[in-house]
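## retry 2 of 3
previous attempt timed out at serialization; input unchanged, resubmitting
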Amino acid sequence: MTIRKYGLLTILIYVICYFSPALFPTITSALWATIVFYLGGALLLAWLYHISQTTLAFESKPKPWKTIIIWGVAGIFLAIFVQNIASQIEVSVLGEASSSQNTNTILSFIKSNYLFILAVSVGGPILEEFVFRRALIGLLETKIPLWFAVIVSSLVFAVIHDDGHILLYTALGLVFSMLYIKTGRIWTSIISHVGMNTLVVVVSLFMT
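## retry succeeded, writing output
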């Protein structure tokens, strides 16, 4: 499978998983659909990645699994640190609200169906890493320099969240991209992204 075919198929699966829950008539059914589509989509993209046999230039010499795990766990705290710095800049310099409507909505959904935390903390991050890091960077780096591909994919990652916090999500996208490229394995950024989302959601639930 070519990198182009892999990337486009990955994006297509993501689009289907992302928008399909909106077709369900009630909030309850939409929440269950989100759980199923996000977790199912994550498994499907992991399988597609496994069988695709595509290797990007910076994946040619991947780090060992011990290093992947260490950087993945360290990346959780690095992402949270960068998130806090970006949030402070948005509030103090750009005049953005400190609260996130996206996060507040997610927390309300979780309180309606606690299994929704699986979609937010596991399925969603895995989908996003395969799409915005593996697929999008893979497609772009064949046309533009890697550093530019990273910036573009991070900006798209920020825009798709549709939360107004462009700087915050772009910064997170850059962190996850750095972890991915540094180790040569997408699983590094997946560990960090899943860990960060899980930690943020759990702490937020206890604080509300």
